[in-house]
Every structure is written in structure tokens, then in C-alpha cells.
Amino acid sequence: MPVLLLGVSGGIAVYKAVELTSWLRKRGWEVRVVMTENATRFVTPLTFQTMSRHPVHVDPFETGAAGVEHIDLARGCDLVAVVPATANTMAKLANGIADDLLSTTLLATRAPVLVAPAMNTAMWEHPATRANLATLQARGVQVVMPQASGELACGEEGAGKLAEVEVIAAAIERRYRQGASLAGVRVLVTAGGTREPIDPVRYIGNRSSGKMGHAIAQAAAERGAAVTLVTSSGLPVPPGVEAVRVATAAELTAAVSERFAGSDVLVMAAAVADYRPVVAADSKIKKGKGSIHLELEPTVDVLSTLAPRKRPDQLVVGFAAETNDVLGYAEDKLRRKGLDLIVANDVSRGDIGFETDQNAVTVIGPQGVVAEIARMPKLQVADRLWELVAERLPRA
Length: 396
Ligand code: CTP
Fold this sequence. Notes:
The protein is of the alpha/beta class. The chain is 34% helix and 23% strand.
């Protein structure tokens, strides 16, 4: 049974940590709770004790069964989650301050740490909090970002509300299952289908929605990577990810080429147009009597251009969305484009691939198939893909 050390710091969102405790316990987790003094003002330790079925710890001078309390707690868990994490608790963790049981335990643990901040918008946006957040992420602490907007207890509207319990619980479970962290790894991901203008109102596009690429960016950020997402999709940008919006193949090529040297991993999930109209009309093309001809010219192939230039420490991953002979075409693309991995995606089935929330893929490397990922939500597929990429990254 996995053991979660749940750190609870003071804020109105404490009640959601009670719900989280109950949810995790039902899913087979053993939850050990440490509360700050302030947290006990919102919800009593007895509530957490009842939910977790274990004594709750608050006092740093209490002695544990085997010796020093904070060391026992820090050692005896698989994962630590701080929910809610106040600005003060984040600041203490970022700066190594240990002045109560929770902050001391956080300093003493070697287990992966996840924090779910919750605070007033101004506090969340304060440069001090932003700096602490960046420090924590750079150290591999996973941050489950607060909701981007919502009504806060102080009456304000804005960012800072604790993420939904299900979102935090899913992040905890994913973090527990995954081994490798991507802390310090710079990741460049492309997503969505490009649009090549014919005239101001029409374009040549494709069915790629950007869901897979956005999930890949999110999963990398959750593992602590510094992620840049070059996207033509209108989907929301995952928390903690820097987005560069593009529309055409030319814009995407420029954005990726500029950032390639500064990245450790490039994942090309975008469906880049292979051809674009030679000229895009300045005004709307009017309907005539007969047929019209559209002359198309090839676009630049980003992977074929960049992969040969990669440094030995860089990894390049491509996608192959195919309708027939999926593995054969994917292997051919891996070789032709000089890739480290290719994700073969059968887009002829209706239940996976383009526009769907689920996917099932085969990942191929230079030596052949490295993994078959069965049908599951795109975020989980993305997480499995990062596991494979992390195994191939050169060790620092
Ligand atoms: N790709 C790219 N630049 C392009 C077109 C595609 O970098 N101009 C990338 C895609 O992002 C994907 C991989 O190449 O990771 C394979 O894309 P795909 O369109 O399947 O391959 P093509 O080489 O265009 O081959 P085809 O269209 O004939 O299947």
C-alpha cells in the first residue's frame, strides 16, 4: 500500500484536503497527515484523524515511536503532497526554512514532493511567490497549479483557488507511478494542425486538434521539465507551460528552429502541412463558373531539417499519423528523418487519434518497437511517452 505524507497548511481550502484524504484512502493509499498550527484553526486534527484513520501530527516536539518524529515521517512515505500549500509554506520550502513540523519534515524527506498552492490572487501573482514557485519547479517539486480563475474566499475573482480534488488526486497517482523526473530538462513540443491561407477567409488545414501535443506538454511540466509549447491549437495552455501561438507551417518552422538549440528534447506532435498555396489571395476569391486551380508548393520539413543538426545530448521525437501500414510508414519516417523515437498513431479508427480524448500508440526506436501503449486518456499516453524519453536522456 503506497504511503502519502499529506502536509496541510492553513487556508480556507483545508476542507478540500479532507476530501482528498478520503478519496485517496478509498483508492488504497495510506495517508499520514501533518498539519501546521494555522491549518488546525480551519479544520481540527480530529477530522483528518477520522478520515485517515491515523493520528495527526502538528507538534514538532512530539517524539515518534522509533525516535525523532519528523525524521520518521519523512522516511516512511513514498510521496509527499502539500495541500493546500500557502504562500508561506511555499516560501519556507523554497528557502529551506524549518520552523515547524511540516517545514522540518519537508526538508528531511527524500521522497518526491508535490504542492498544490491556494491563496489570494495578489499573493499568487507577487514576484516573491513567482520566484519561490520557479525555485521549487527547478528542484523537481511538482506543482499542481491553482485554478486560473474563480471566486476566492476573500471575495476577489482571479487565480489562486486550489485545483479540484480530482485533479490533485490524479497528479498524485501519476507521480507515484512514474519514476523519472524531468527536472532541469528543457522540452520543446509542437501541437495542432497548421492552417495555410488560400485567401483571407479560407485555408488548407487538417483534423489535428492539438489534444495529444498539449497533453505531452502538460505531462512534461508535471514531471518538472521547462516546457515550451509551439501550438496552432486554441486549446488552453497547460499550467506552467510557456506557449508560442502559430498558425502556418512557416510560423511553426521559424518558432521551432529558433528554440531548437536551447532545448534538450523536441517532440513534433504537430500535423504540419506538407504543401501550401503558392500565393494567398489578398481578398476573398469569388465564385466563378468553372473549376479553379490552386497551385501548391512544399513546405519545409522541420524534422528533416533539424534532426541532422542535433547535438549528441539532444533527443528528437516524431509522430506518424497513418491510416494504413502504420508501423511500416512510421519506421521509414524514423530512419528518413533521423529520429530517436517515433510515435506511430493509427488514425483510421474512430476511437483514437484525431480529435479524440483517448489514444493508443506504438513507440518505435532505431532498434524496433520499444512500447505498445494501449488505449487510454491522452495525458496518460503522454506520461508513458515521457517515461520512455527519460530513460534515453543522457545522465547529467
Ligand atoms: N513534420 C515536420 N515538418 C513537416 C511535416 C511533418 O517536421 N513539414 C513532422 C511531423 O510533426 C511529424 C513527422 O514529421 O512528427 C511525420 O509527419 P507526417 O506528416 O506523418 O510525415 P511526412 O514526412 O509529411 O510524410 P507523409 O505526409 O507522406 O506521410
